[in-house]
Design goal:
Strand content of chain A: 5-15%
Shape of chain A: globular
CATH superfamily of chain B: Histidine kinase-like ATPase, C-terminal domain
Structural class of chain B: alpha/beta
Helix content of chain B: 25-40%
Number of helices of chain B: 8
CATH topology of chain B: Heat Shock Protein 90
Distance between the termini of chain A: 39 Å
Shape of chain B: globular
Number of helices of chain A: 5
Structural class of chain A: alpha/beta
CATH class of chain B: Alpha Beta
Radius of gyration of chain B: 18 Å
Largest interface: A-B, 33 and 26 residues
Oligomer: heterodimer
Helix content of chain A: 40-55%
């Protein structure tokens, strides 16, 4: 059985606060690689102190442009995330789906 | 140019109107002296220093000089502005905060939320006589403020964000203000909605650009990063905990109060239009 990859958020963003869009981009880059390779991964939020929506939008929300929500949920699971933050992540993914449906010709904003 | 502040500058329509008027009048000022006259003023809501700081930063950037006139030697207003370190960059020194109730005025780069978080950690919960709050409650307040802080770099295209707060130990609440002079909410919403913008300018039904912007899922973003959560997350938290939200952008002043029964929302138009956005939050800080 293929071993799941663990992505440690604290290591990726080199800190305990998941609060910036730029840090979200770092996690997004890692998640993108995993999804493109159709691998499974656990995103571990251990030791992360604060999480805000702009981080989640950047890290997870923009995945929805290239991967459907079901694929993301099948291949990526999260660990050490509070119920509240799990709910926020869920809403981020739902809203991202709507966002990209409404903007089919989207371009990079960087 | 001389600008005279009125008797009171409070966190209300009249107070925000004065800041908007100052910004509007000083916007095109170049290589002149702006004289701020507080001689008739006997009250200034300390947290509004964020809005004032944003305006004065623009004035300073445009090669103008800034002068303050407080009237008396022991001006109450000057002391207020010195206690929260607002006057320090203007060479007027600072006063120790002997009451332990000020959350210092500070200017941040808009893309540095980590610095803002460090500032909150240092200044927000180390105030005198603060009730014991759970880590969960503190975290919620942190998150709410960071959500507001992050908005300008995502939407307003501005370089700096200004923050300041004040703790009221008797009333057990914190008033905190975050300001920027970037694109207004109206400009963003109008660009995004195009001809549909006219549908959301009905002030009587509270259907306004700010109202649109604080609804969950609504975002004016166009790039790869979706959005539409920051302000709605904040609104839910304030609603749950009996807080207040005031947002001023262009000439719209939106207010939502959950600390009164029944909760109330109100929108009004200012007589002047301010560049950017001022967000004022009230958090209850009872034992939790």
């Amino acid at each position: 059985m293929e071993q799941e990859l663990t992505i440690n958020v604290e290591e990726v963003i080199r800190g305990k606060d998941a609060i910036s869009s730029d840090d979200g981009q770092l996690l997004y880059n890692r998640l993108c690689e995993v999804l493109k390779a159709e691998k499974k991964a656990v995103v571990d939020f251990k030791n992360i102190d604060l999480i805000v929506s702009s981080f989640l939008n950047s890290a997870f929300g923009q995945l929805v442009k290239d991967f459907d929500k079901e694929t993301i949920e099948k291949l990526i699971c999260v660990d050490n995330l509070s119920e509240e933050d799990k709910n926020l992540l869920d809403r981020v993914l739902d809203m991202a789906k709507l966002y990209f449906e409404q903007r089919p010709d989207i371009e990079d904003d960087h | 140019m001389e600008f005279q502040f009125e008797k009171e500058v409070r966190s209300d329509k009249e107070g925000l109107d004065q800041l908007a008027k100052l910004e509007e009048k000083s916007r095109e000022l170049r290589s002149e002296t702006l004289k701020l006259d507080f001689t008739q003023t006997n009250f200034f809501d300390a947290h509004l220093c964020s809005g004032l700081g944003a305006v004065l930063t623009q004035v300073d950037k445009n090669s103008n000089k800034i002068q303050f006139e407080f009237g008396t030697e022991e001006s109450k207003i000057e002391n207020t502005l010195k206690r929260n370190a607002f006057m320090y960059p203007f060479g007027r020194g600072f006063l120790p905060d002997r009451y332990g109730t000020t959350i210092k005025y500070k200017k941040f780069k808009a893309d540095k939320p980590l610095e803002f978080k460090e500032y909150l950690t240092k200044h927000l919960f180390n105030l005198k006589d603060m009730p014991e709050m759970t880590e969960g409650s503190k975290k919620q307040i942190f998150k709410s403020l960071i959500e507001v802080f992050n908005n300008p770099s995502l939407h307003a295209g501005c370089d700096h964000v200004f923050a300041c707060g004040q703790y009221y130990p008797n009333e057990k609440h914190i008033d905190f203000c975050i300001a920027n002079l970037g694109r207004t909410i109206h400009e963003n919403v109008k660009d995004y909605l195009g001809s549909d913008f006219s549908k959301i300018i009905d002030i009587k039904s509270l259907n306004t650009p700010i109202w649109w912007a604080i609804q969950e899922g609504n975002t004016t973003r166009r790039g790869l990063h979706p959005g539409g959560f920051g302000l709605s997350v904040l609104k839910k938290f304030l609603g749950k905990t009996g807080g207040r939200l005031q947002i001023c952008s262009k000439n719209e002043f939106w207010q939502e109060y959950w600390d009164i029964e029944p909760s109330a929302k109100r929108v009004s138009h200012l007589s002047s239009s301010i560049k950017g956005t001022i967000v004022i939050l009230r958090f209850q800080v009872t034992n939790s």
